[in-house]
Amino acid sequence: MSCVVSIHNLRYGGSVPVLDGITLRLDAGHFMGIVGPNGAGKSTLLHLLVGLIQPDHGHIDLFGQCLKRFNRRKLLRHVGFLPQLPTQQPHLPVRVRDVVAMGMIDYGNPFVPAGSFDHSVSSVLKMMGIRSLGHEDYRRLSGGQRQRVRIARALVRKPKLLLLDEPSAALDNQAQERLYRLLRQLCDEWGMSIIMVDHDIAAVSSHVDSVACLNRRIHYHARRGESIPDDVWKLMYGEHVHFMAHDATCIGCSQDAR
Amino acid sequence: MITDLLMALLDSPVMSAAIPPTLAIAIVTATISVMVLAHRLSFLTVGVSHSTLAGLGMAVLLGLPLLPAATLFAIAIALFLGMMPERRGIHEDASTGILFAGSMALGIILLPLAGTRQVDLFGLLFGDILTIGPAERSWLWGLGLLILIMAFLSFRSWWSLAFDPISAAAGGMPASALRLLLYGTIGLTTILCVKLAGIVLTAGFMILPASCAWFWCRSLLRLWLISTATAILGAMLGLVLSYACDWPTGPAIVLVLSGTFILSWGLAWLKQRVRRVN
After folding, report:
1. Range of the domain at A116
2. Are the beta carbons of A144 and A170 closer than 8 angstroms?
3. Which of B152, B162, B173 minimises the CB distance to A92?
4. Predicted confidence (pLDDT) per residue in A35-73, tens digit
5. Which among A81, A92, A103 is the nearest to B38, CB-wise?
6. Radius of gyration over alpha carbons of chain B, in Å?
7. pLDDT tens for residues A8-26?
8. What CATH architecture is B2-277?
9. Which residue on chain A is closest to B38 by alpha carbon?
10. What CATH number is given to the structural domain containing A74?
11. Does residue A149 contact residue A141 with C-beta atoms inside 8 Å?
């Protein structure tokens, strides 16, 4: 199976590193969840993966090419990224369709007419179940609706790699479940590779192929069907954590909890 | 009555000569005003335009051509303001305030030192498009064209950057370079506007057109179209008022645009109230 993301011995944060000795590999069509407490370096890791910040040490390969050396613009054309939901209220007068179309903009080619994005925008809006919101003012949407529009923007280019930072934030339980199912479908049917950072460990673990437990370094990387030992949770969160099992294939939950 | 005034305006050689550059400035400033508002750079615009006084002061003192010297100074100030927060960790409004005050002070000290050299201080501060010469005219046309080309090439990227800078940068967009390009363009636009509105009122031209349109748009194209239409109408009405009442041209246009903004804001508020009631 081809390797989509390869991280080797990554270090970031200067003398007090936020991330240290991170080594990870993500194959094509694989869905990886990253869990960890606040300040564990989860968002920082995603920012490193899209080159927003540069590591102090180690290297990152995307699609077999070094992120630092290869043309970043060309590499990132195949990556969809959803940053954390901003706390600031949006202020630009912009329609939902136009927000999603922003995901298609190639600054190196300003002569592409905006209308050529219409088909891709319509299909991704339909996929996210928000087709009826296409002509709405983005500022008037609820937090959950905005989050779905942002996910649609990350998906509109049909990326090979999707990086999601807390995509379930502001979504109700039903929308969360629908989102996780859609992501699973994207992996299985489109062969998309996904890295998803989330706080809801139980929900994440029931949909992903593997879970990386991160708190400055990767404490454990569990595959589906494998349980994460209690001492790993204790090491990450500083106290005993008890999880309720979801189903027989749920990973992340300890054997006792099942 | 307005038609009569317009005809009289067109008959006046001085006023009719001022119409093309005024309209060109209106179109360019309206275009940039969209990005000034989108990126929340209104205070930066005020800072850059006021800082130009130091550039003009230095140019007068050293006997340099005013517009080219001031253009370089404005670009330098704008780029410096664009880089300062990233490099030194100072918030943009503080660095703008510091440069604004420092450059104004330098300009106020330098201009009297120019001594016998003739400096039209009122023209510098409030603009005077009626006295525009052929050299200044060519400079302004060139500058205007350059700004419009840069805006045309970067408009969508700037808009996307204003909406969500992290997603834009993560998509491979060179966010810092595009931001600096925008700041440099704002510096250029400031100089373009100084001849019409002067150092003091330039910011009005670069904030008001898009502000008037802001309440009535949900797309970038519509925002640009309404801003431009507002700026053109404001400029023409300002010229007519200036001619009819013998007012200085720059302040007359800014006054019309300010009035349009109040009207637009009031109508938007009224529309919202009606919608809530229904």
Report:
1. 89-158
2. yes
3. B162
4. 988 889 999 999 999 999 999 999 999 998 988 887 778
5. A92
6. 19
7. 999 998 888 999 999 999 9
8. Orthogonal Bundle (1.10)
9. A92
10. 3.40.50.300
11. yes
